Amino acid sequence: MTDTTTTPSALFVCVHNAGRSQMAAGFLRALSGGAVEVRSAGSAPKDTINPVAVEAMAERGIDIHAEQPKVLTTEAVQASDVVITMGCGDACPIFPGKRYEDWQLDDPAGQGIDAVRPIRDEIERRVRDLLASLDVEPVALPTR
């Protein structure tokens, strides 16, 4: 069981929990080296993760192929210190004392790898900024 008083936690939310939020969660898991508790969810989750998002993350040495889209729950929001939305807007419940960020990112759904790479790279940059704001030093990504 994670002690949330000492371990920061973050929840990434997008509509389908199949692309952006899964890539962000993958980066945060990898870059935090376990120093941050990571969750992701969707307001209307798909059945599977976007295969192009999986491919784009594999290029960075991060394997997210076994992840499954999950439905957004009030409990997940309550259990998280930082809630980052990516296009789900008002579907995310608001609780006092939580830190909320809205990352405006293109949706990789239906896009090819060349269109998804810049989205992936922007997500990585923002996750690195998030780590800095949580005073967590990023670890090196796995070699490809």
UniProtKB/TrEMBL annotation:
Domain Phosphotyrosine protein phosphatase I: 8-133
Domain of life, source organism: Bacteria
Keyword annotations of the record: Arsenical resistance
InterPro entries: Ptyr_pPase, Ptyr_pPase_sf
GO BP, sorted A to Z: response to arsenic-containing substance
Official protein name in the record: Protein-tyrosine-phosphatase
Organism: Isoptericola jiangsuensis
Taxonomic lineage: Bacteria, Bacillati, Actinomycetota, Actinomycetes, Micrococcales
